[in-house]
Amino acid sequence: MAETQYRVPPEEAEDDATNGKMGFLEHLDELRTRLIRSCVAIVAGMVVAFAFVDRISDFVLAPTLRMLPARQLSSIRRGAGATGHAASSRACGAA
């Protein structure tokens, strides 16, 4: 049988700082960095979604609006407009 030759990697000096081990505070620092990046990504996604809110809502509601009779459709649109106006006026402080 043929002998298989394996190369054994040279042994490296073990150093606790570079051996893939992190202390508690280093873990907290990495967690903080990842949380901040995640929050920035979520805010950026919300800004982009806000710019296209009309298109997104039309896309999501299109199947429902197609199935409703015309009479219910007009009452839903009136109700949604009044609700949105009331909510925005309360949020802005108007009476």
Description:
- The structure is a single chain.
- This protein is mainly α and 95 residues long.
- The chain has a domain of 38 residues.
- The chain has 3 helices and no strands.
- The chain is elongated, with a radius of gyration of 29 Å.
- The mean pLDDT is 77.
Looking at this protein, list some descriptive labels.
3 helices, 95 residues
Could you give a quick summary of the protein structure above?
The protein contains 3 helices and no strands. The protein is mainly alpha-helical and 95 residues long.
Number of strands: 0
Q: What gross morphology would you assign?
A: elongated
Distance between the termini: 92 Å
Helix content: 55-70%
Report the order of strands and helices: HHH
Q: Given the structure, what is the number of helices?
A: 3
Report the C-alpha radius of gyration, rounded: 29 Å
Q: How confident is the prediction overall: mean pLDDT?
A: 77
Question: What structural category do the secondary elements indicate?
Answer: mainly alpha
In terms of DSSP E residues, the strand content is: under 5%
List unreliable stretches of 5+ residues.
none
Report on the biggest sheet: none
